[in-house]
Structures are given as C-alpha cells and as structure tokens.
Design a protein that fits this description.
Length: about 140
C-alpha cells in the first residue's frame, strides 16, 4: 500500500433496501476524492453489493423500458469507485465475508472484489487511520 492514509469501512446493508447504501457509496467517493485509500469489509447482506449477476430492469408501472429506467446497480457503483481509485493511484480493496456469501449464494462477484473473513476486518482496522462501521440499525 502506498504512503497515503487508509480508511476502513465495515458495511452490512443489502443493495436496494436502504438509503444507507447511497450514503455509504457517497462516503467512499468522498474518501477517494480526498486521496485516501479505501478498504471495505462487506458482511451480512452487504456481500450482495458486488454480486456480478445483478441485472437492470424496466418499470412497467411507469411505462419505461430497461434503458429508460436506468436503474443503478451497486456492482456498477463499486466498479466506478475502483476506476476512480486506479486513476488517482489509490488502493481500493473490497472483501466480502465468505460465510455471509455462502449463506446468500452470491459467490460470483465483479473483478477486484475478494472473499475473506472477520480476520480481514481486524487487519483492515488495525492498519487504517480510522474505521467506520455502518450497521443496519
């Protein structure tokens, strides 16, 4: 890891269920904008944030097809954050809790996201200058 400071985030909300997800991604983006390395440990429902098989959908109630609806997918937000970090020479590491992944069957993740366990969160927090945990309640 380079000499830039690192922030660790622990997140547990599933995609599309809460406004906390949008706030979480805004915090990650703000950290990268301030030239901070980012590490994420996703657990519980948050392991589905990076699920590679997410698919956009239309909205028949509003008469919009998939393209018109432009439904944002969390896997795409993560990929955009990865690109932002890479363009700035920053590190962006995303680790999913393997037990949580197995419980939910979301084993297929986008490139650049990995699988680990609670020891990774411990390591992340130990090496970071600060850790933010965003719980579900």
């Amino acid at each position: 890891m380079n000499e830039t400071r690192t922030l660790t985030f622990a997140f547990m909300d599933p995609p599309f269920e809460s406004e906390r997800t949008v706030t979480f991604f805004r915090l990650l983006d703000a950290a990268l904008a301030r030239n901070t390395n980012v590490r994420v440990f996703a657990y519980e429902g948050a392991v589905a944030q990076a699920f590679a098989l997410q698919a956009p959908h239309g909205n028949g109630v509003h008469g919009r097809d998939t393209e018109e609806e432009a439904h944002p997918l969390t896997k795409d937000w993560i990929a955009a954050l990865q690109r932002t970090a890479a363009s700035k020479g920053l590190n962006f590491e995303w680790i999913n809790c393997g037990l949580c992944v197995d419980e939910r069957g979301v084993n297929e993740v986008i490139p650049g996201c990995g699988r680990g366990g609670p020891a990774d969160l411990w390591r992340f927090a130990s090496e970071a200058f600060n850790t933010l945990t965003i719980g579900t309640r």
